[in-house]
Design a protein that fits this description.
Layout lengths: L7 H18 L2 E4 L10 E5 L6 H13 L2 E7 H6 L8 E4 L5 H12 L5 E5 L18 H7 L6 E10 L7 E9 L7 H20 L4
Helix pairs in contact: 1-2, 4-5
């Protein structure tokens, strides 16, 4: 696996740049405020429908959680989008034995209360209009390799244009208290309940 790299100058530049392009390319970015325990790390699970998702949730972390950001990305993205490694990107290759090393690394990150780890458990991009969010089984390996003292947060992202030239993006957040011996099916069921409730809330917006 390929790990994040540290460079404060590059990080600060791209934090500024991401803030700038979100403000310039979107009509607005909204999310609901949530309470969280600053003394615990965060596992953030989100649907994955666009190129923007990682940047939007990077911005969300800066505005809401203020944690040290980490995100699991493909090995191709790690190599081809050079700056992602300086924003907390670490690589996973699902066709390599190094996948277990990546999952163990992510689990260990969750043992540090300063960290937030973003996972797109679908494993690849899907439409923003799917009815069900599937979760890859590697998620449970990651969880089981941690001390399980972290907080779960679910994020459901939706974008709409309405009457504007630029889209508005909304992130619906929810904390979830997982049992110590939780299962992938339980997490999937809980996430999809949040996703469906968020989708219904998004669908009734009128302008």
């Amino acid at each position: 696996m390929l790990r994040p790299r540290q460079n404060k100058l590059i990080y600060n530049f791209f934090a500024w740049y991401i803030n700038r392009i979100i403000k310039s390319d979107f009509k607005q970015f909204k999310f609901n405020k949530v309470e969280f325990d600053a003394g615990r790390s965060i596992l953030l699970l989100a649907n994955h429908f666009s190129w923007w998702d990682g940047f939007i949730l990077f911005q969300l972390n800066r505005l809401c959680f203020g944690k040290k950001f980490h995100v699991m990305i493909t090995e191709d993205n790690y190599r081809n989008v050079w700056f992602l490694k300086y924003l907390g990107g670490f690589s996973v290759n699902t066709k390599s034995r190094s996948m277990m090393e990546t999952l163990e690394y992510a689990g260990k990150l969750l043992n540090d209360p300063q960290n937030l780890v973003l996972i797109f458990p679908q494993g690849k991009l899907y439409s923003n209009h799917v009815d069900d969010i599937d979760l890859q089984k590697g998620l449970m390996n990651l969880i089981n390799m941690s001390s399980k003292k972290f907080q779960y947060f679910f994020a459901a992202l939706f974008a709409d244009y309405f009457e504007h030239r630029k889209p508005s993006v909304t992130c619906y957040l929810q904390e979830w208290e997982g049992a110590e011996f939780t299962s992938l099916q339980l997490i999937k069921s809980a996430y999809n309940k949040h996703y469906e409730a968020s989708r219904q809330q998004q669908a009734v917006i009128t302008v």
